[in-house]
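Appendix B. Raw example, untouched.
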Amino acid sequence: MRANDPATPDAPAAPALRIGPIEVASPVVLAPIAGVTNEAFRRLCREFGAGLYVTEMVTTRALVERNASTMRLIRHHPSEEIRSIQLYGVDPATVGDAVAMLVDEDRVDHLDLNFGCPVPKVTRRGGGSALPYKRDLFEAICREAVRRAGEVPVTLKMRKGIDDDHLTYLDAGRIAEQTGIAAITLHGRTLEQQYSGTADWASIATLKEAVGSIPVLGNGDVFEGEDGPRMMRETGCDGVVVGRGVLGRPWLFADLEAAFAGRPERVRPGLREVGAAMIRHAELLVDFFGDEGHGCRDFRKHVAWYFKGYPVGGEVRKRFALIDALDELRALVDELPDSPWPGAGAEGPRGRAGSPRRAALPEGWLDAPCMSDTERGGMADAELDISGG
């Protein structure tokens, strides 16, 4: 799949992103997405453009216990030059043990800590985007992760806060900087916002001013190639993190790379080209799972995202969403009409934005910004055997 316009021969290269000793050719990072950003999807995105590609979020307890599913999620293909893993944990000791395990066994080159997950089953136990409100616990996790990581850079991702009355990102940013965190990603929404409304890019600029010694990356509402350079211009951030915008559109990385380099070409695939990308994605999933049926069934959830904006009827979509074998998928793609790129209908937000909702938090969580003994005892169940965010 190629861009519509030829590259300008003397166009400048995209600005590099540096995180500790790591340099990435393009200042673009793939945000962890549960059930999506596995090895197969990361490989597919890398085939389109440069960036830093992070695993799905994995829990530190499951990792220390060497849960089979979790061990698969941290696996990297030999073509992945930078092995980047995102961890979720609520206990400093367990987080430290997980970090040490990955470093000592040479499984990772970059670690990211998740403090941004808004899923209620995580936040109602004090994890994810609820955790930075407890400054002492947040600091302890950051400090222990950095200590146990040694030379491997540790970064973190967080949200603005729990709601507009309980913003935590500036305090958390300063704590992260002081504890040796190598870079911070800020999603410009609160926990209560979920993915609704418009991301507050101004908060990214404010954080960048507050923590001048380490890179700040912006996250939220990067859906087109032009959005990346625009976010960096408006906020002064050092890179952009993309999530929902790549669902069913892995070529967004090609668009972002071209936009950052000042080149005019953009990927505008016709329906048959989209079908070719779907086949490649499914093939990589089969390789990842080592089972054709499993890989094809996992691919089904991507169908609606790939077809967004294209003239594909409900019956055809249903047939794609029921495939069990690669040959079935290939045959269906052969039946697709040679429809051109449909324009704006195929662009913009992907996935469900949802609506703002009251944050699910442990009882009394907002009473004080430091952990009580009762709250410490209640954190035992906060690290669920899940991956997501």
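End of appendix B.
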